[in-house]
Amino acid sequence: MDKPPAWKGILVYDIGTTSVKSAIFDGEGKPRFSVSVPYKTEYPRPGWAQQDPLQFWEAAVQGTREMFALPEAAGLSIEAIGLSGHMNGSLPVDAEGNPVYPELIHSDSRGGPQCEKILSRFGVEELYAVTGNRTDAHLSLPKMLWLKDEETGAYKKTRWFLNSKDFLRFKLTGLSGITDYSDASLTGIFDVNKRTWAWDLIEDLNFSRSCFPEVRSSIDSGGKLCKEAAAVLGLPSGIPVSVGGGDASCATRGSGISAAGEAYISFGSSAWISILAPDPVFDPKKRMQNFFDLNGKDCNICGTVQSAGAAVDWVIALLFGNTELRPEEYRRIEKELELRPIGSGGVMFLPYLMGERTPHWDPAARGVFSGLSLSTGRENMIRSVYEGVSFALREVTEVYTDIAMPVKSMKLLGGGVRSVFWQKMICDILGLPVFIHPFPIHAISLGAAMAAGVSIGMWRDIDQACRAVSAGAEGIIPDPASTAAYEPLFAAYKKMYGALKPVFDDLRNTANVG
After folding, report:
1. Omega before 359 cis (within 30°)?
2. Residue range 138-163, pLDDT digits in tens
């Protein structure tokens, strides 16, 4: 029998909020196959969100073995391994690279009191001028300080503070103490002007300098697949592993964004909008985040909506009593939502289930339904959540206009984009041409694959990689009548947070409210 033809690919691990996606791309940037292995997020208290990093590795192993068991994988040779993972975390490991505490992930806001301590010591203006980011409980720094203040035993064992993809790289290569510019620049303790750790702040907060890892570009080499990991994965040892990047930086390049005015929305449990710029952009009102590109040079100007797909999953599970609906069941529900009028029968929703980032940066903010009556049905409530998240994204686009970076078009990517109903709603609410990524659930992994390809010389740089694997996107345009109908609703939406902020602050001081 003839042997199957040999072909070469790039293996990518993308650590998401709910699963690790293992994927293989060919040399043209097309996803050949992928496997997602889920794991749990623990919510021990309101505002707390943590994960066991060992589950990242277990999920990667399972996904790899499942892919290579496929007949289509016969003859496949892996040229490089790329990495991506959720950002804003705090993953403390010891000198051997082992976790000493669960990772406090991006949605964790337990570091609120530490934020107040940091701000009272340095001030908002000083910190923003250095880090390019507002000090917020969702960033890494308050979580690091919380560990130092509240979990002294774990802190004393900590050798490095990492992010999710850095831990997985350690499991692959045996090398720890390395991160990349994108993750480092979104910790809240990185000097974006000097492109190094903010050593003065680190010393003032009495952290050990040695806790902060070496910073490399995402496109650099991060080591090679070690024998121990290779044996577990069922792969040959010695495969090059790139440093990899945070999920948002990988999404930018995976989306193909390069020109001024182009932006993308990455839709998952949370959502973010990002635009590339040659340097950090300092928003006078400090609403936007700055973090570096995969090349370690350009900068992402980014606004984040904390609860996006997570808000829809939550309300559907709550009202339908099912946390594991199949895709066809979501489509059936959305067919019903299409029959409901714009405005959800007078119901409006603030999607601040885990606090909010852009533009409010308020960990005390919470989700709110407004306009409920005895005639309100669950479909109107669910549709209002879709609309509320879309309005939150519209607020982010308005910030870009304020800082002289107006958005001219938008690409959509991520799992939430599979909803045609939501695509159209976002297009109408934003009032912008919208393009659907040809591989919407693989864009982050594609960016990580590009970085891995550059790291082994497959492409000269990340710009050439983007041009080489760029694929067309399907476009839709807003319906003028629908856009006009949403305008007064959006105006009302923008009033809700300001009116309710005193209530959020009062509730934050109530016992057992995070």
Report:
1. yes
2. 899 999 999 999 999 999 999 999 99
Roughly what angle, to the nearest 10 degrees, separates helices 480-508 and 420-430?
90
**Burial tier of 509 (Cβ tally within 10 Å: 0-12, 13-18, 19+):** exposed
Q: Which long-range contacts (CB under 8 A, 24 or more apart) does 53-56 make?
A: 53/91, 53/99, 53/102, 53/103, 53/164, 53/167, 54/99, 56/15, 56/20, 56/85, 56/164, 56/167, 56/168, 56/171
Question: Is beta strand 91-93 parallel, antiparallel or unpaired with respect to 160-162?
Answer: antiparallel
Per-residue pLDDT reduced to its tens digit, 431-489 = 999 999 888 889 999 999 999 999 999 999 998 998 887 666 778 999 999 999 999 99
Q: pLDDT-derived band of residue 1, with 50, 70 and 90 as boundaries?
A: very low
Going by their DSSP bridges, the two strands 348-350 and 299-305 should be labelled as unpaired
pLDDT of 222-239, one tens digit each?
Answer: 999 999 999 999 999 999
pTM score: 0.89
Q: What is the total residue count of the chain?
A: 514
DSSP assigned state of 161 = E
Q: What is the CA radius of gyration of the chain?
A: 22
User: From CA 147, how far away is CA 111, in angstroms rounded?
Assistant: 9
Residue 67 · residue 83 · CB < 8 Å: no
Instruction: Extract the runs of DSSP E, i.e. beta strands, from 342-444.
Output: 348-350, 368-370, 409-414, 434-436
State how far Cα 21 lies from the chain centre.
14
Average pLDDT of the residues of the chain: 93
Given a contact cutoff of 8 angstroms between Cβ atoms, the answer to whether 67 and 13 are in contact is: no
Give the residues across from 215 on adjacent strands.
179
Quote the CA–CA distance of 501 and 177 in Å, as a whole number: 41
C-alpha 245 chain-centroid distance: 11
Nearest to 213 by CA among 167, 279, 150, 147: 167
